[in-house]
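Standup notes, structure subgroup. Blocker cleared on the arginine input:
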Amino acid sequence: MDFKQELIALLQKETRLSEEELANLMVVPPDPKLGDYAFPCFKLGKNAKEEAERLKGKLKLPDFVSKVEVAGPYLNFFLKNKVVIEETLSHIYQEQKEFGKQDLGKGKKIIVEFSSPNIAKPFGIGHLRSTVIGSCLYKLHRALGYEVFGVNHLGDWGTQFGKLIVAFRKWGSEEELKQEPIKYLLGLYVRFHQEAEKDKSLDDEARAEFKRLEDGDKESIALWEKFKELSLQEFHRIYKILDVNFDSFHGEGFYNNLLEPSIKELQQKVKTVVSEGALIVDLEKYNMPPFMLRKSDGASTYHTRDLAAALYRLKKYKPEKMVYVVGSEQKLHFRQLFTVLELAGIDKKKLVHVDFGLFRFPEGKMSTRKGQVIFLEDVLNKAIDLAEQIIEEKNPTLQNKKEVAVMIGVGAIIFSDVSNDRIRDIEFDWDRMLSFEGETAPYLQYTHARSCSILRKAVKEHNQGVSPHVNFELFDQTEEIAVVKKLYGYPEVLEKSALSYKPHHLAHYLIALAQAFNEFYHKCPVLSEDKNLTKARLLLVDCVRQVLENGLNMLGIQAPEEM
Ligand code: ARG
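Run returned:
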């Protein structure tokens, strides 16, 4: 089924390029009129057009290729429709949920660190992006055959916990803590800052308290563990709604006992200096502020904990790559970290910061602004409520309304995130997000539900199920072929999305597939008197249903059968 791979093997014989180079050069032309694959001949010689002509003359065409054409510097390959159609539909029919999976990453390990919210603070909208982009990258790499470890690097250590413990000892109550833990802890944290304005000694108390925590004081640790436990309970509720999973919840605090050994290990390879009582790696040469390993009071920093985490993960998992899905505002932090790790001899190709822009809320439109934070759970609940209202309008007799509303509401939020190139900031827009048309999750879900409904009707009214034994010659409409070509491209899109760490490629692909399907649906009646044609088209509908489901699930979105 992998025609691209076969073309690469063919080109490998006739050029001096490696398989990898060829794979990187080969593209799918944006306009199908230019063929199914295009190979740019720049690397073959000075005059690429001549090289393309020469190559064309030399190639012995395999029987799945109908023709090759030279267009400028490109050699364009056209595949035989019948072969592509039969291969693609048969594969999807056989492989079902597995369709799209590959073994490119076989035997390779990759760590995807994502979500990483801070405990004792609400799970804010800010951590949504890392959560959904990270979760998608996790799934995509799994699908490519990598062994993936999903790590949630909880923000559960640092001076702020000194502050929180001081605040809780002074003003806290166990009773109130239990009722609404995170809101309560947030309140205590805010109060600490207010009081510290008036009484500077509180900050010193907090620093001393954090030191006690780092030194392993039993009472302090017990309190910290309680805060952590209560926070995790809330986070798990959100992860459940979003259907996101992790292999490890080792947060910053986990590395407490590894901090000093990590500093020692680093010092064997990298020069450290004491500056104003603090231990640092000077990064002036690299035009960056120093990497701080130990503060003058002996406390660790965000840097130290990331250093320890990186060294620990490299030893424990021996990954090919360590991917950090963290917002662009921490770019400098990761440049510093990666530079220090590189100085310590770690191959920088292993280290990837997958950064992303902010989620922007148009002021006023959203109701729930509590303090400075927008609670993600409130956003999700609002989306679910809105989805429920829309269902009530459009399909009041639907059986499992609540369940479907969750799928649509949550799907809309996830999609509005992952469908944007992660580098850009996103404007949050309820109307656009929950629309059943345009580039939204509900549009994809609706198209999926439509395909399910056609299949149901075929069984009920025409007594016709889906079968792979159809006459593939019957697919001769442009719209049919356009749909199949899209389906054929699915595995390649998964690969591209994973290797570029950009799930929006998959999101855009799904929109294009749904559009192609809807054009087909309007032009070509599926259920007709012609039994053979009906059978053929039902197979196509079923394959679209499957790929929409697979792709949506890859993005973390459910595909309802009815809505
Ligand atoms: N907890 C941090 C925050 O919310 C994100 C952690 C990012 N990961 C890391 N290894 N530093 O800003």
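Discussed briefly. The chain is about 55% helix and 10% strand.
Next: hand off to the docking folks.
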